[in-house]
Here is the input.
Amino acid sequence: MIKISDSITLARTKFKIRRIRLTLSLIMISLLCSILILGYIALERSAASLNEFSNQGLNGRYLVSVSRWNGISVYDKVANEELFSEAESLYKKSVEEEKKTYKEYGIDYYEDLSQAPTATYGGSDEKYFNFGSKYANQVIVEFLQSNYPVTKTEKIELLLKEYGAINKYTAQPFAAKNGSFTMLQNGQEPETQKVINDDNYQKISSYVSYMNSVDDDLANPFIGSDYKLEKNEIPILVNYEIAEKFLGLKPIDTSATEQEKYDRIQELRKRVSEESRTFCWRNDASKALYATALIANNDKNSNVRYNLGNDTCSTPTVKEDKRSTEEVLLEKENTKLQKELGQYEEPASKFVTVRPIGVMPDMPDSMYMSDVKDFLQAMTSSTLDRGSAIVPRDLYEKNVEDEVIKDIFEQKTVGSSFMEILFGSDAYIAEFSTADEMREFIKDVDCASEYCGPDVSLKVETFSNNAAIIYDTKNYAMNIFLWVLLASSVVITLLIYIVINRILADSRKETSVFRAIGYSRFEISQIYIMYIALFSSIVSILTTIISAVVVMAVKSIYEPQASLYFTNFFALDQTKDFVIVDFSILIPLIGVPVFVIGIIASIIPLIINTHRSPLKNLRAE
Here is the structure.
């Protein structure tokens, strides 16, 4: 048996033959092995990083909203003779009571036809509900509350429990009960023309005037870590655009780098609570009195002059009254009468301050995108933004102790009018542990036709994110990449097989010489196996060097950019490391499969070369 040292020496000698082909073969195989192993590592590390990024905040949570169908077709269910008659009966009873009371005060009674619950149009006998009538709304609301399960918490809870929901939250409109909610401009209630010319004022005022409240568990991912909040200020979340307007910052350019985008978002998160906005709330009576005072003070012939007060948002008081005694007495009698009928409202006003304590991604302006990046970002972004500010409910209840403010923004579990119920955004938010559970719930519970009968007319849709789509996309992409990787492995294996097979098939002359000087077939095989081992070792070394250079380049150049990109892409509150590729023990071990493939590739040429006559091999050369 030939010594190992001798077989190594003889194998090394073969490396001096056909050096160009050998060098090209080594480089090609090393490059292919580097591509294969780095591709596998990159797929594994990138998938893990993508999972980590996409599961931050609300991104990886399977949430759905359960609400009423916002469809006018529901009107068909309430527009029936039975409900018409019930509303008209309530109205007639109220009119009779008012007539009696007015008669006691000696005041002429004029029926308020605007409160009539039904009306006809165009000479037709067909009746319609008057949505401005409190009597019509009373009847309709009672009907809807008894027929729509979303108003019945216990039914929703049983339904969610049946489908395995792991959490239940609520989202409700957060708005003043009545009156006006006007943002101050330079500390004063604004004049119309100044408002029109102030874009920042208009957008902030519009965004904050109609708010929604959600449970803090949903709002927490967007709340800043070091916000400032004074007592009785209403905490709100705003989108990036409104946050810029609060801080007076110009929008960042669309061509900005990922670093510039990240820096801007971090600036908004850090500074947004520095600014607040104060609103003047006036109830309907105060609003009417304030309007009357402005008109009277601007009318030279007015008999009444009002004192608007030194402080804005104060209730006007009478400064000068030139009316007759009869007119004054009549007004007092009317006020007394309204109080007795329960129709009088004391004028009231209140300063209300809102302060942003966090930011969230902007809601997509349109379902139509200009490029793939915008589309993907819209699809993967998670946000509570729906064009209005979000109030973290628990934090609001903890911070606001002023009873007047609490009363102004009293949270209602159901609407008090048909239009509020029909078009309101009250909803339950359900969370499921898997995408499949969420899909099953939507499939079984969602009413696609707006009305599916009592207790089942629910609108169910994904809330805040597209976690299920992201989940599916990642799985599909992973499967595609794995198949591509498998196909590449097969191709690379065939190339390695062909190269080594060709090298050994062309070694007939060396085999003949070895046979001629007395080496056995086994000893010749030992030499070529050692040659393949050295060949594999060189491939392993070259692959390790190439891979190390690529890994260092990717880590220093591309990973920081990828970290910023995906931090912005998924709207995370702070940057995280996105690992594209890493050095692995698998890289230097690539020589093992190359050696195995080489052994398999050498079997046939070795058998042919060692079993043929040395003379025939030499003649063939």
